[in-house]
Structures are given as C-alpha cells and as structure tokens.
Specification:
Elements: H1 2-15, H2 18-38, H3 46-58, H4 63-69, H5 74-86, E1 90-94, E2 102-106, H6 108-130, H7 134-153
Antiparallel strand pairs: 1-2
C-alpha cells in the first residue's frame, strides 16, 4: 500500500509541481476555516458541532456510539455530551432495550442551533460565490464535482 501511495505521489508530482498541490491544500483549508468562522457565533467546538450533526443525521445514539463515530475516548465524549446537555442542545433518554444505558437525543433547541449554523455557513458561501463571475462559478462547481469524486474514490 505504501509503495502504491509513493508511486501515485511521484506520478502526480511529475505532472504537477508540488507547489500547486500545497497551494490547493492551503486554499481548501482556508475555505473550510472561513465557512466554519461564519457560524462561530454559536460558540460550539468542532466536536460539539459534529455531535449535533451526527445526531441530526443518524438519530439517537449512546455516548459510546458517538465516541466511536468521532474516534474519541468515551470519557471525552461524555464531557462533550455534558456540555451540550448543559446548553440544552441534547438530552438523555432511557435506552429502549438496555436499561443501563441512555440515548443522547437532539432537542428542539439543538435542531434550531444546527439549522442556524447550517444557514450561516451557506449564506457566507453563497455571498462569496456570488462575487465571482459566471465562468468562475461554473469552474468552481465543476471542481466541486471533481473533489467529490476524489473523496468517494478514496477507499484506502
């Protein structure tokens, strides 16, 4: 596997200067940071925002399930869940089949916060894209499709 990655990198570098790759990575990173900053008024950590998103997409989960999904220790996830619970964004409900466990559930306030965060990010990005000319917007959206294919093809 490592030989394959090294060969892939050499082929890529031989066709494209390394500085282009570095600039691309930096540009994507900056874009992600700017989009996240657009919703920073909610003052949620990245982990807290990720937990809210996961609960919204996948429904109730135990703290252990959330810890595994976010590659965290259960104790650390417990701290995150407690903070979200204190803010009223999630609540604990009895597990339907295991009386020893609790499900973490998104509250109405949590769902509204998620929606506000999503809208803030989309609004900032839409405004930034609107400043581009039509040709650049089309190029950007084509690049988005290419990036999606890169991500989906990464099964390693």
């Amino acid at each position: 596997m490592q030989d394959y990655l090294l060969l892939s990198y050499r082929v890529l570098v031989s066709h494209k200067p390394q500085s282009d790759i570095v600039e691309f990575i930096q540009a994507i990173g900056l874009l992600v940071r700017r989009v996240r900053a657009a919703a920073a008024s909610e003052e949620l950590s990245l982990t807290e925002a990720a937990v809210l998103g996961r609960l919204e997409r996948e429904g109730p989960a135990t703290t252990a399930d959330l810890a595994r999904a976010e590659s965290m220790k259960p104790q650390s996830m417990g701290t995150t869940v407690a903070a979200l619970e204190e803010m009223g964004l999630v609540e604990r409900k009895p597990h339907p089949t295991d009386g020893r466990q609790f499900h973490i559930v998104l509250t109405a306030k949590g769902a509204a916060t998620r929606e506000h965060i999503r809208n803030a990010k989309r609004s900032w990005l839409a405004g930034a894209i609107a400043q581009l000319d039509q040709r650049d917007r089309e190029t950007l959206f084509r690049a988005g499709a290419i990036i999606q294919r890169l991500v989906e093809s990464d099964s390693r």
